[in-house]
Structures are given as C-alpha cells and as structure tokens.
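Contributing new records

If you add data, match the layout below exactly. Sequence lines come first and carry their own label; structure lines follow with theirs. Keep one chain per record. Anything else will be rejected by the validation script.
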Amino acid sequence: MFTFTKSRPKAKTPTTLLRVEGERAYPRSDYLATEEPLEIRLVAQEGEVRTVAVTMRTPGHDFELAAGFLFAEGIVSHREEIRRISYCTPRGEAQQYNVVSVVLNAPRLPELAPFERHFYTHSACGVCGRASLEGLHRRFRPLQGGPIVSAHLLPDLPHRLLARQALFGATGGLHAAALFDPEGVLLALREDVGRHNAVDKLLGWALLEGRLPLSECLLLVSGRASFELVQKALAGGVPILVALSAPSSLAVDLARAFHLTLVGFLRTGFNLYAAPERIRV
C-alpha cells in the first residue's frame, strides 16, 4: 500500500551516486524526478466520497492534474461543475499532499459505473483499457476546422519546448506536454514522469482557466502518441497532435476516425498519419 506524505513533496529529489567514466569512478550529487502517488477523490455536497483514481505522478500542478483527469474521462464537462479542489485534511490530522479532493457542485456523486476503475496505475500507462472506439463515437464528434500550420514551424517546436523544461534540465527524467498557437507561441507547458499526466495537467489548466475547447491549438508531447493521448486530445478539442516519437496503430486509427491531425517522429522532418490538410507544406 502506498504511503501518503503529510509534507508537501517536491518535483525533484536530491540523490548521491557513483559516476563511472572509463576506468575512473567518483561520487557525485544529482537530482531525480520525483514520482509519488496521487489519490483523486470525488466529494458530493451531501458528503458522499469516492476515490476514482490513484496515479503515479511528479508533484506539482496537482489540482490541474485532478481536474484534467476528470475532464478527460468524461466525469466532469464544465468548470462550473467543480465547487473547489483541495488537498485532503482529515479531522485532527495534517494535510495529506498526495490526496486531492474534488468537491462537485452537486448534492450527490454522478453515476460512476461507466467509469468504474478502482485501480492503481504506474506513471507510463495512463488509464488503459476502458475506452473503445464505439464508446468514443458516442462521446465525441469528428473534428471540424482548426488552424492551418506551416510545416516549417513544426521542427522548431521541440527546441522551444526543451528551452522551457526546467525540471527536465535538472533531472533528465520527465515527459512534457505543451500547447502552442498556430504561430508557434507557447501557451502552456507541463512536465511529469507520466506523459498522460502531463497532458491531463494541461487539460486541467485549460478547464480551470475557461479556455476549452482548444480548437485553435496544437498539442506537442515529448514521447510517443498512444491511443489514450489521442483520446485526451479529442476531449480537449485539440485538432493537431504532434509527437516526437512513434504513434501506435490504434492511435492512428482513432485519429483518422475523428479527423484529428496526427504528426509523429518529429525531427528535421516528420510523418503525417491523419488529416494532413491542417499542415501547409
């Protein structure tokens, strides 16, 4: 069972190690990307409480992570459905910074059977295995419109991303997700040990700031494009998803089904897998 810390965890953790170069070995200090559990609880006005997820994450922007997760999973649809978000404070105890309570503007919790998942997930897998293409067709419609982005702009975006990745610079062990406008201006960036968490933090930011849908943005992710990341892009109304690495077969199928522009293997060039008309070559 996880131990939930009562002191605020930091995004990076100091460590000591033995550095080996050729025949020489010497001690040195470094930082690790912190990975700790976050329990997300739903709370109704009449006091009903339900844990909906425990995910491994890098501490920081926890409220955005909780809000973005609930939004991406379809449990909440609008900012007004959330009354407040706070760290858990049991009676007579100190705050627990690895437990977040999301209080809804509703007397009772919504029916959670369609979202049933009392699960523990590691930071890399996201929320896997629930959503089917049929279920997503009931929830989303194919994306229409969206910006036209110059192909010459895309290869420069990873450099703009890396320049703003402070935690990656310190630890070398974090994924990043960023929102850009059609001219390549960085709007928001979030880092986490899990790429799914990084995207959820962005969605939570957009939800809480009243910026949804993100129909004039493109989403850049530092790893591969999975089915779950395409699903999250669809939830946010993002028309263009760009990944530095490969997409999965199901990610491509989903992007094509919902007319989402999917770019992979972004280097000096890139591969276009779906809805290429939003990229001006």
